[in-house]
Amino acid sequence: MCRPEYVVVMLACLWLPSTLCQTSSPQHEQLKFRLAGYPRKHNEGRVEVFYSGEWGTICDDDFTLSNAHVLCRHLGFVEALSWSHSAKYGAGTGEIWLDNVMCSGSETSIDKCLSRGWGNSDCTHEEDAGVICKDERLPGFLDSNIIEMQVDENRMEKVRLRPLSAAHAARMPVTEGVVEVKYKEGWSQICNVGWTARNSRVVCGMMGFPSERIQAKKPNSHRSVYRIHSVACSGNEAHLSACTMEFSTNTSSACPGGGPVVVSCVPGPQFSNGRGRKSKLNHVSKVRLKGGAKAGEGRVEVLKGSEWGTVCDDLWNLQSASVVCRELGFGTAKEALTGARMGQGMGPIHMNEVQCVGDEKSLLKCPHKSITAENCKHMEDASVKCNIPYMGFEKTIRLTGGRTQLEGRVELLAPNASSLEQWGLICGDGWTSREAMVACRQLGLGHASSGLSETWYWDSSNVTEMVMSGVKCRGDEMTLSDCQHHHVVSCKRAGAQFSAGVICSDSASDLVLNAPLVEKSVYIEDRPLHLLYCAAEENCLSKSAVRANWPYGHRRLLRFSSEIHNVGRADFRPRLGRHSWVWHECHRHYHSMDIFTHYDLLDLNGTKVADGHKASFCLEDTDCHEGISKRYECANFGEQGITVGCWDTYRHDIDCQWIDITDVKPGNYILQVVLNPNFEVAESDFTNNAMRCNCKYDGNRIWLHKCHIGDSYSEEAEKQFELYPGQLNNKIS
Fold first, then answer.
1. Where is the signal peptide (predicted)?
2. pLDDT digits (tens, 9 = 90+) for 551-572
3. Which residues contact 482 (CB under 8 A, 6 or more apart)?
C-alpha cells in the first residue's frame, strides 16, 4: 500500500517541474542552522545552513511563512512571525544550498520539504531568504541571541601573532609579532606593502588589545609564504576578514619591495606587563560589564547622572559592542548579544538604538535614543563578549577526580615549580562559591555551580600537599592568585579530603531584591509577645527578648515586604537536597537554607544596632513574567527554588519578616538587606545581593528613602548616601 506522503509527492510532480521533487535528505549528517546579516536582532536574519562541511544560504524563490516556521524551529524558536526576500539582511557567501523550498509548516526538518535538492539552484545571493522568529524559545535550546562575525573559513580560518623571538613568546600576553592567517592548506603571512595603522588596529582588536603602536619591529629574515596582499581596513572592523584584500592562489607568491606584516599592540591596564592584573582603568569608566562568567563579557551597563542602567538591544551590533570592549581595555567584540543573554538588569534602561561607527572613545558618545517605559524591557538588555589577550591562566590549574570535566578537586601548579608535575591542593577552610567562581573562570569553564570545602569522594590523585590556603575572593578576579590568600600555608584540617573542589556550569542564577517595594511597604508593628513564641524559637527576636515578661508585653518590629527576583540564566536552587531539609514543627514548614537573608539596621558609622535573618522556609515561585511558568512550590513537600524570570515574595505580615527594634533609640540609620549572605548558592554576580536604604526613626514612625541595590549608584552618590544627615521633616522628596 502506498504511504500518504508519497502520494502527495507523486501528485505534486504532475504539476510541478520534475526538478522540484528531489526530497532526498543528507545521509549521516547533522544539519546546522544560524541567523546572520546586519542590521538585525537575535531572532531575525539571513538563514544559513551548514551542509556538506560548508555554510550556505537559501533562495527566496517560492518562499512562504510555512518555510519560515520550519526554519525558526530549527533555530530554537517556537514559530515564525514573518520572512524576508531579496537579501534584506545582506548577501551571503558560499553555496546556495536550497531553492524553491515548499513546506507545509508541520515538517520536523527543512530536508523533509519539497525543493530542487541540495546544491541545485539558479539564484544569486541577492535573493537570499531571511526570517523573523517569535522571540520565545523552545525548551532545551540555550544558544541564542548572538550576533557574531560570520567568517568565510575558506578565506581566513584563524589569525594569530607569531612572536618575534623566544623571549617574546615567554612573556604573556604576546603583544607583538608577525601576523599569520590560517586557511585550509596551513599558515601564511600578509604582504606589508600598503599596510596601514588602521589595519593594525583591526588585528590588535582581534588579539584582545584596545589599540596599536605605530612602530613595529622587523622580523628576523626567513622565507615567507604570502597569500594575502593589499589589505585595506577602515579601522572599525571587528575582524580582518571584513576588510578588503587580495588573495593569491599561488602559495609561493612574493611580496615585491616588502615583507611580512608585523604589528605591535598596546594591552589594556588589566593585561599590562609588570603592572599586575589587579590594576584598574586609569579613569573612572562610565561603562561596565555585569553577569559574565569570563573576563571581557557581560551585560552592558552605563552610568548616567548618579545611577547605573542598561542598554536596550534594538540595533545592537558588533560595532557598538566593540566600542564598549575597547573602552574597557579589551579588544574588539567577538559577539554582540541581545535578549538579556547575560541576565536582566533591574534599574533604569538608559540607551536604545545605539549606532556607533566604531571609532568613538565611549559608548555614551555614540548616537542613540533615550528610553521610555514603552520602548524596551529588561528582557532586551544588550551584552557583549570581547576578545581578550591569551594569558595561559588555565595552564596553572586543573580538576581531578570528577565525574565530568566540569567538576573535581582543584589542583594548582605549585609556585616556582620547575616541572609541570609539581601540583598541589587548596585548603578547603572558608572556601565558598565566590572562590569557586574565580576557579571556574581561570579554568575557562564558565560559572560556578558549587564550591565544595570537602572532596573526599573525588580522591583519585596522588597529590596531597597544600600549596594555598586562606583564599578569599571578591568574585571578579581572573585567577585565584589574584585573590587574598595566606603567604604561608596554614590549614586547620589536614588531609586531601579537606581540600577545595568546584562544580562549574555554563549558566548561573542571580538574585536581586526589589528595592522600591521595600521602601513602599515599610511600617512599625507593636506585636504582643503571646503571638511570638514560634518566632522566638527560630531566633527572630533580639537577645533582650529572653528577659521579657512572657507572655505579657510586646516587641516593636520594623516590617516590610521582600520581592526577590531571579534575573540570571539558571534556576536558584538550595544547596542541600530535600533529604537534608530541617522540619520546624512550630511553623510547620521545612527550611531548605539555614539563612537565606540578613536584615541589618546600621548606625551612620556602620555599626549594627539591630538585626534579623530569614531562613528559606518557603523558597518558591510566587509569580513570573509573562510567558514563564512557575516550577517551584513549597506545598506538600514540593521542590524549592526560584525559576529564571520569576520572583519569591515574602509578605510583610509573615513571621520573621522583620527587624526587632525594641531596643533601638530614635535617630537616623541605614537599613541593609543581604540575599544569600553566606554565598551558599553560586550566582553570576554577588555585587547586587545587598540593598540599602536611608532610614529615619522618630520613636513612633519610620521612613525609608533612597532604597537601592548596592552597586546601582555611582561612587560619588554612594558616598553622599553614607553621609545621610537625616530628614528635616517627614516629607520625602
1. 1-21
2. 999 999 999 999 999 999 899 9
3. 277, 278, 438, 473
List the end-to-end C-alpha distance of the chain, in Å, as a whole number.
81
User: Mapping DSSP to helix (H, G, I), strand (E, B) and coil, where does residue 188 land?
Assistant: strand
Q: Which of 579, 568, 592 is nearest to 641 (CA)?
A: 592
- Annotate 384-411 with b (16+ C-beta within 10 A) or e (fewer): bbbbbbebebeebbbbbbbeeebbbbbb
Cell numbers given for 55: 555554510
Contact 261, 240 (CB under 8 A): no
Sheet holding 623-624, edge to edge: 511-513, 562-566, 646-650, 623-624
Residue 34, Ramachandran bin (φ over 0: left; ψ between -120 and 50: alpha; else beta): beta
Helix (H) or strand (E) holding 309: strand 307-311
Under DSSP, the state recorded for 588 is T
117-174: pLDDT as tens digits: 999 999 999 999 999 998 777 765 655 555 655 565 556 778 999 998 877 777 889 9
The rounded distance, in Å, linking the Cα atoms of 310 and 300 is: 6
692-696, Cβ contacts within 8 angstroms, sequence gap of 24 or more: 692/721, 693/515, 693/518, 693/519, 694/668, 694/670, 694/721, 694/724, 695/601, 695/668, 695/669, 695/670, 695/671, 696/667, 696/668, 696/669, 696/726, 696/727
Q: Return the DSSP state at 675.
A: E
Three cell numbers at 651? 509578605
pLDDT tens for 485-528 read 999 999 988 888 999 999 999 889 999 999 999 999 999 999 99
C-alpha cell at 661: 527594634
Neighbouring CB atoms inside 10 A of 627's CB total: 11
Cα(539)–Cα(533) distance, integer angstroms? 10
Helix (H) or strand (E) segment spanning residue 327:
helix 318-327
* pLDDT at res. 373: 57
The whole-angstrom separation of Cα 241 and Cα 264 is: 19
Take residue 520 and report the three cell numbers written for it: 513602599
Q: How far is CA 251 from CA 160, 185, 225, in A?
A: 18, 9, 6
Fill in the DSSP letter of residue 47. E
Contact in structure between 505 and 447 (CB atoms under 8 Å):
yes
- Which residues, including other chains, have CB under 8 Å from residue 7's CB and lie 6 or more apart? none
Cα distance between residue 366 and residue 356, in whole Å: 5
Beta strand spans in 387-529 (E): 397-401, 407-413, 423-426, 447-452, 466-468, 501-505, 511-513, 523-528
